[in-house]
Amino acid sequence: MNIVLWIIAGLLAAAFAAAGVLKLSRSKEQLAASGLAWTEDFSAGTVKLIGAVELLAAVGLILPALLDIAPVLVPLAATGLVLTMIGAIVVHARRKEYSGIAVNVVLLLLAAVVAWGRFGPYSF
């Protein structure tokens, strides 16, 4: 199960690092034009903050355990992603963007598995 948790954490880290870098490197208008219409509901600063949270969570899923420095940050990062995905689900539900909800639910479940495993029976 330890290997499975590493794989899930790696996939989550890759997905959220890419999403975070995208939000940090593009303007709100560019993001909206590329299909992220939900950005229209938020300020540019908030979109950048969400990107920073996603990028930090991606780092937090891997580096603390890899470097054996405060490995408790791994399940905390996963828990933060669960909360972030709950917020994303609420936003997409309000906007009636149901395809976005499906992706967020999958990411939420994967992050919840990592949080459960790393807080529980497979902690570092």
From TrEMBL:
It is found in: Membrane. It is a multi-pass membrane protein. The keyword Membrane applies. The chain crosses the membrane at residues 6-25, 46-66, 72-91, 98-119. Keywords: Membrane, Transmembrane, Transmembrane helix. GO terms for cellular component: membrane. InterPro entries: DoxX (IPR032808). It comes from the Bacteria. This is Putative membrane protein YphA (DoxX/SURF4 family).
